[in-house]
Amino acid sequence: PATLGMLGGGQLGRFFVAAAHEMGYKVWVLDPDPHSPAGLIADRHLQAGYDDFAALDTLADACAAVTTEFENVPAETLDYLAKFIPVRPGASAVAVCQNRIAEKSFLRDNGLPHGPFAVIHSEADIAAAPASLYPAILKVARFGYDGKGQARVTNAAEALHAFHQFKNEACVLEQMLTLDYEVSVVLARDENGKVKCFPTVENQHTRGILDVSIAPARASGCLRDSAQEYAERIAERLGFIGTLAVEFFVSRGELFVNEMAPRPHNSGHHTIDACVSSQYEQQVRALCGLPLGDTTQHSASVMVNLLGELWYEGGEPHGRYREPDWSILHAVPGLKLHLYAKHHARHGRKMGHFTVVGSDAADVLAKALAARAAIGVRGD
Ligand code: ATP
Ligand code: MG
Ligand code: MG
Question: Among 120, 131, 180, 320, which one is most buried in terms of CB atoms within 10 A?
Fold first, then answer.
């Protein structure tokens, strides 16, 4: 069977490996972490950095094509591999999603809706930013995720302080929008430019981290459709091949693109249990030049993230370590538990998730929230 390459060994890569195996492929994973969740189930785990050219050569020799699950793989790594084998998505599309300045400029240049922002390279840029941006949120341009590298600021003095805390790294300063709610669209685009979207998902965050995803979103059909149209336009303009996720804010009834992820997304985990083809199967299909699968969602679903604090007594940072009691979840009809085999629990670390599926959306949501409360997840 053909062998596929995966850059990054997190849970998104792990689900890709599982999908590829079911479709008859082997997968080699490159990730420096010896305990990476995807590396543990891969046919081979190359334990090396993304700039280790000997390891990249080995990967290129063994694999028919390569993809990524980690958006911060250096664009140079993707460019280097692309000399030997197909790399999907390509370096230029990934580069836009890796840098909030490039991402915001891309949105602006392509007429896609986004909130007011300023690019911050220096103290002078903060001084020049309009007062109307505040209250605002300063975000480092690179390497932020799960709300890391972000500070909420109410005036220029606070923005300056936060900029110094981020070691004067390039940032964007975004106006804090009043959120009605948040949605995302996961889609796949193949090498011929054909696109298939999964139904628009509604996302609830707690402390900057995705907590609960409700699919389909409880928004109007019109709003769900326009989110899909914007996401399709983004995929086309990026020349994207693979699985792409677009996060949106809904503010005063209007859609604003928040950010893109050039890979499967946490808010698409439910596609494993609630759709005919999952977002990971789509990633395999797009990578291998196969026709895209059926994105029909056959069940209403709610996904709940299981974060590291669950592993501590009372959820306290210095609480006693304990394994959560999964039997509570196993007893819920329609609930599917997915654990990522991570060895160390940390606060805010994504350790697993569960999805509840069923025919009645309100019933599924009630069940998922009851299960979430029963295992002691805090909702603040
Ligand atoms: P991830 O990549 O894990 O989604 P991230 O670190 O890239 O997270 P963002 O998506 O930028 O973070 O922000 C995380 C959350 O913080 C958003 O989903 C939203 O709830 C809130 N947030 C971020 N920016 C704004 C904003 N400009 N206005 C209002 N809320 C915001
Ligand atoms: Mg992000
Ligand atoms: Mg985000």
Answer: 120
